Amino acid sequence: SQQGEEDPQALSIQEGENATMNCSYKTSINNLQWYRQNSGRGLVHLILIRSNEREKHSGRLRVTLDTSKKSSSLLITASRAADTASYFCATGLIQGAQKLVFGQGTRLTINP
Amino acid sequence: DTAVSQTPKYLVTQMGNDKSIKCEQNLGHDTMYWYKQDSKKFLKIMFSYNNKELIINETVPNRFSPKSPDKAHLNLHINSLELGDSAVYFCASSSMSSGNKETQYFGPGTRLLVL
């Protein structure tokens, strides 16, 4: 079964606004990652946060992790049209290899 | 320059056929993965190989058989294709022996349509 549940499933905002996506998960993790997928393309890694971290920044991205609530959020500030894509959270558990379990994704549309 | 490449990009075939998808990475990684993304965009891991050894094998029908001839390649062979196999298959790689172990690099995907 899917580990992560993302909320909302779809989000449409105006360019320049901030976009927030949430992810909840069920089991223990080593890390949580966010990926972006443009329509018809592969996944691109955006940011990783480890289980002992609470917040990470990368450019216009801010990720938080609350392991007590088993939830994470991705904030994209000052959105641009090029940010239009699907965003997936993935929980990572290292068991010989890194096993990523993905949420169902949030479809983000930035309107010019 | 392509880090993780897959061939073919598109594959249209008849039910019952056998087909293969190939994946190659030039990142020097030691671990490779196959994921399946269905029509609802759910992305699920299928297999993982580390140094040519099978590490992760999720509940996948026996008709799916991965093969890793070397660390840079992980191929996926599918026997007796069924309609439900239609999906986008993504290959990914990572390094479990050095550097950032957690990040995976994905290929562009192979869109399989079974008629």
Secondary-structure map:
The complex is a heterodimer of chains A (112) and B (115).
Chain A (H helix, E strand, L loop, with lengths): L4 E3 L2 E5 L4 E6 L6 E7 L5 E8 L4 E4 L2 E6 L4 E6 L8 E11 L1 E6 L3 E6 L1
Parallel strand pairs in A: 2-11
Antiparallel strand pairs in A: 1-3, 3-8, 4-5, 4-9, 6-7, 7-8, 9-10, 9-11
Chain B lengths: L3 E4 L2 E4 L5 E7 L5 E7 L5 E8 L2 E5 L6 E7 L2 E6 L8 E8 L10 E2 L3 E5 L1
Parallel strand pairs in B: 2-11
Antiparallel strand pairs in B: 1-3, 3-8, 4-5, 4-9, 5-6, 7-8, 9-10, 9-11
* Number of discrete helical segments of chain B: 0
Helix content of chain A: under 10%
Q: Which shape of chain A, going by the Cα principal axes?
A: globular
The pLDDT mean of chain A sits at 92
| Largest interface pair | A-B, 26 and 28 residues
Helix content of chain B: under 10%
- What is the helix tally of chain A? 0
| Biggest pleated sheet of chain A | 6 strands, mixed
| H and E string of chain B | EEEEEEEEEEE
Cα-to-Cα separation, first versus last residue of chain A: 37 Å
Report strand % of chain A.
over 45%
Order of helices and strands of chain A: EEEEEEEEEEE
Low-confidence stretches of chain A: none
Overview of this structure, please?
The complex is a heterodimer of chains A (112) and B (115). Chain A is an all-beta fold and 112 residues long. Helices cover 0% and strands 61% of the residues of chain A. Chain A has no helices and 11 strands. In chain A, the strands form 2 sheets. In chain A, strands 2, 4, 5, 9, 10 and 11 form a 6-stranded mixed beta sheet that branches. The radius of gyration of chain A is 13 Å and the shape is globular. With 115 residues, chain B is mainly beta. Chain B has strands at 4-7, 10-13, 19-25, 31-37, 43-50, 53-57, 64-70, 73-78, 87-94, 105-106, 110-114. In chain B, a hairpin with a 2-residue loop joins strand 7 and strand 8. Chain B is globular.
